[in-house]
Amino acid sequence: MSSIEPRERWGSRSGFLFSAIGSAIGLGNIWRFPAVAYDNGGGAFLLPYLLALLTAGLPLLIMEYTVGRRYRASPPGAFRQLARPAEAIGWWQVGICFVIAAYYAVILAWSVRYIGFSVNQAWGDDPEGFFFGEFLKAPDKAGTFSSYVPGVTWPLIAVWLITIAILALGVRRGIEVANRIFIPLLVVFFLVLVVRALTLNGAGLGLDALFRPDWSALSSGSVWIAAYGQIFFSLSIGFGIMITYASYLGRRSDLSGSAMVAGFANSSFEILAGIGVFATLGFMAAQSGEPVSEVASSGIGLAFVAFPQIISSMPLGGLFGVMFFGSLVIAGLTSLVSIVQVQVAAVADRTGISRSNSVLLVGGLLMVVSVVAFSTDGGIHLLDAVDHFINQYGIALCALVAVVTVAWVLRRLPVLQADANETSAVRLGKWWIVCLGAITPLMLGWMMVDSLRAEFKENYAGMPGSFLAWAGWGVAGAVLVFGVLVALVPWKHHGDIGGRAPEAEPVEDELGGKI
Predict the structure, then answer these.
(1) Quick one: which of 236, 273, 256, 255 has its CA closest to 37?
(2) Over the stretch 63-81, which tens digit does the pLDDT of each residue have?
(3) Rounded to an integer, what distance in angstroms lies between the CA atom of residue 337 and that of residue 163?
């Protein structure tokens, strides 16, 4: 008799959907999408964005759901069952998730501190100087490290302890319950923020800047690359999360319908975030007398520099700040949990150890790496470099290799299509195979070529030959090497990795349907 724990199951279809949506909705939805849309044609950008969702995002999401449910394993085990050499892709994804989780938690720690800073607007009259200087103590020269920053270290440890606690409770009692609480709370918080932003003087200026269509932008290839890139990065596809989550589904679950609900929910939140962010930036532009183009920003600069400046100048700004940074924490935490779960599942499948031990091993190691690497005074510069290279040459490249392997090398799309169609309300036709066999790999390949061309023309952030540039390239290459090396070690067929285990009985959801 095997002592391996039976594979867990989601408690209901809605629990899986809440968790999938929670993984997809993260920091990028709030601070990346609005700027990408604004810089690439405004309202006109929604056309390539929608086409990217329909021709690449949803098809790839359905493929990952099908692979996860069919083989009931984490990415390494699932790809191994597709073909023995393909296991390396799964471990590559695990390595990518490890790197992302290590620095993603740091941004959540910053957001936690900024909830408190918002109450008394501790950044004063110089939010940028406060963030980089007084708070992060960042050195002027990138690539230098001299001391740890306690104001980052302690909240970072707290973020990791919360994440470990949620994961230790399991898929049903931990991840599912947490997302059932966090996702509705996030939606309520952000709806209140959007309503407040729309009442600000100048909100119309921001919305006009965001949604005014520039149809001429559609003739630019970079706009289409941006649309597909946003879809790939925002849906949590390409690095194993959805394969892992789908591995806990029952045999009768609706895959295509679930993918559409998760995909459109993610995109709807992105548009909602765009409205809230640009309405607020319109207020900032009206207050400063500058055009929206001068105050528009994205990423860390938007969240920790621009928004604090706005908070200081608006009525009830403290409350607005608490809700904004609270939204960042919630959105980021649901994504972080899903990223770490990939590694937890892979270690448990590979070694046969219990879930609790796998959580402690993975979570403890991640907490140490996160604190050591990113809570120093030079941590923000390292984070910026690693984030760029792991996204461009980790996630995107891994997604390209995965879809080419499944569609072109192994020719498994017809098998996966039949598997999904057995239980899905929306049946997959030839369009699905065409999208994954042609459109998705071509767009991912185009993105990769365009990114490399820009990289060789001018290295990221103008740092050729610097420590950070080498660190970025090194991390991106290391996760690939990690995937190949770990895949060479023989399995001992723990759990149901050696083959498809008998299906568990379907569980009833609260709507009476079965998964």
Answers:
(1) 273
(2) 999 999 999 999 999 999 9
(3) 6
498 falls within a domain = no
pTM: 0.93
Tens digits of residue pLDDT in 158-167: 999 999 999 9
**Separation between Cα atoms, residue 292 and residue 297, nearest integer Å:** 10
9 token code pair = 């199951």
Amino acid at 242: M
Residue ranges for the chain with pLDDT beneath 50: 1-3, 464, 495-496, 498-515
Domain that holds residue 124: 15-487
Structure token digits, residue 130? 């406060």
Is 436 a member of any domain? yes
Give the span between the Cα atoms of 82 and 89, in whole angstroms: 11
331 closest CA partner among 110, 24, 104, 26: 26
Asked whether 311 and 118 are in contact (CB, 8 A), the reply is yes
**For the chain, how many structural domains are there in total?**
1
The CA angle 190-191-192, to the nearest 5 degrees, is: 90
Residue 2 domain-assigned? no
Q: How far apart are CA 23 and CA 183, in angstroms?
A: 10
Which CATH number characterizes residue 392's domain?
A: 1.20.1740.10
Please report the DSSP string for 124-162 in residue order. TT-HHHIIIIIIT---SSTT----B-HHHHHHHHHHHHH
333 belongs to a structural domain: yes
User: Would you say how long the chain is, in residues?
Assistant: 515
Distance CA 445, CA 96 (A): 19
